[in-house]
Design a protein that fits this description.
Distance between the termini: 63 Å
InterPro entries: Sec1-like, Sec1-like_dom2, Sec1-like_sf
Radius of gyration: 27 Å
Strand content: under 5%
Helix content: 40-55%
Order of helices and strands: HHHHHHHEHEH
Strand order of the largest sheet: 1-2
Number of strands: 2
CATH architecture of one domain: Alpha Horseshoe
Pfam families: Sec1 (PF00995)
Family: Belongs to the STXBP/unc-18/SEC1 family.
């Protein structure tokens, strides 16, 4: 009983500590990140002058560097790009180190120009499907864009301009299976006894560059809502910290992987040309 009481006190202390940290600015930061991500506040109103809410967080010493970096990224995405003068001011307010500023220029390598000069066309994101009622928590209102794509793929609404290789499904034709005249009764009795398994249509999604946990959750939600078998994968699972690290590395020179067997080319031989091991 004493051990249970000690464990319970430990959990209560950890929960209280987490709640104190969350209420020390992180709750308001989460709300602002959600507002910038979807363009509306928790009441459904369009954001106006969000810079007035962004600056206090950039100058708050309690906000970590990664959170300040991500907040600047979200604000620039919300504005569909900002001027170089505005970007310099934001970096100065947030006290972003020089070696971390490559994150914002490297975003252009992904097709997103966060810094847009006067007169140049700004990038624009495709329209989103309204999903204001999907989450019961104001701090989790953002729905990954890949959920729209998975639903469009299931309902055959994908744009052929962006996905020209996706063909429409052909209706499955019923085929008559030949049955043995000698063992037909045995086959019918076995089919009645065997458990019936429902065969669901399958959607396979691979995300180049990595996927987040929220994108994985969206695959489960699409699967449950549409009675489809959805399989999602990527070469890595991206966390907020991992995402920023990946952006930093885009400006670094590419170094090919070293051949583990120490050969420059053709590391494997044909099986018939190998000498016996014994």
């Amino acid at each position: 009983m004493a051990e249970v009481r000690v464990d319970w006190n430990t959990h209560v202390h950890l929960a209280s500590d987490c709640m104190e940290r969350y209420r020390a600015g992180l709750d308001a930061l989460c709300d602002l990140e959600q507002d910038l991500s979807i363009g509306y506040d928790s009441k459904g109103n369009r954001l106006k002058e969000p810079i007035n809410r962004v600056i206090p967080f950039l100058t708050d010493p309690r906000i970590s560097l990664d959170n300040r970096l991500r907040l600047i990224l979200l604000y620039a995405l919300f504005e569909n790009g900002i001027s170089s003068e505005s970007m310099v001011k934001l970096l100065a307010h947030a006290e972003i180190p020089f070696h971390d500023r490559s994150i914002f220029t490297n975003a252009a390598r992904l097709g997103v120009d966060l810094v847009v000069e006067e007169g140049r066309p700004r990038f624009s994101l495709p329209p989103r499907r309204p999903r204001t009622q999907e989450s019961a928590y104001t701090s989790a209102r953002w729905v990954p864009r890949i959920k729209d794509l998975m639903e469009d793929a299931i309902h055959e609404n994908l744009s052929l301009d962006h996905f020209p290789y996706v063909v429409q499904r052909d209706p499955v034709s019923e085929r008559t299976i030949a049955r043995s005249a000698r063992f037909g009764s045995l086959e019918r009795s076995a089919s009645r006894e065997a458990p019936k398994t429902e065969v669901l249509p399958r959607l396979i999604v691979f995300v180049v560059g990595g996927m987040s946990h929220s994108e994985m959750r969206s695959a489960y939600e699409v699967m449950a809502a549409n009675s489809w078998d959805v399989i999602i994968g990527a070469e890595q699972i991206i966390t907020p910290t991992k995402f920023l690290d990946n952006l930093r590395s885009l400006s670094e020179p590419f170094e090919p992987a070293v051949n583990p067997v120490g050969l420059n080319s053709y590391p494997f031989k044909r099986a018939e040309s190998l000498e016996p091991l014994v």
